[in-house]
């Protein structure tokens, strides 16, 4: 079957395909994320904060000033704590940070959906748990190293990446494509991270339509 995944889903898609290469007919990946420390640091410690300082300020609010040198760890501490009100506020702040940075332009409706308490709690706690453990991968280069890519070279694949993706910067997709030249890298020149960016949506539909012709 065709495996389709974006962002964290691209991580899972690559891990699945490399584990069960004979079960995957094609891959459509968006917003490449491979759970490496430099990728997590970019979004949760420095980097994206330079582009979205107003949203970053809100992301910092739940964390004491003296704990901000390791924000993922500070959030993890709150998420594992007994204060439910504090946990909810932190989860909403964590989720809104991602919702605020997903698109090339600010989308109030997206931020609103990310701030829903039930969604935010599930989203933030699961993400933080996996990120703190680097996805339980054997090592941070597991998904991109040549021995892993060799397992999936035979699988037709398209990588759709927004040029201005602030959550999963284009550098990661570029590095993956350099190791995996059999895959087609498509950089959407005026798009951010979200699958609902017009260019991104167009390329995702085109990719799945193209692969469907092989069925």
Automatic annotation (TrEMBL):
One of its GO terms (cellular component) is cytoplasm. GO terms for biological process: proteolysis. Keywords: Aminopeptidase, Hydrolase, Protease. One of its GO terms (molecular function) is aminopeptidase activity. Residues 3-198 form the AB hydrolase-1 domain. InterPro entries: AB_hydrolase_1, AB_hydrolase_fold, Pro_iminopeptidase. Transmembrane segments: none annotated. The keyword Repressor does not apply. Pfam families: Abhydrolase_1. This is Proline iminopeptidase.
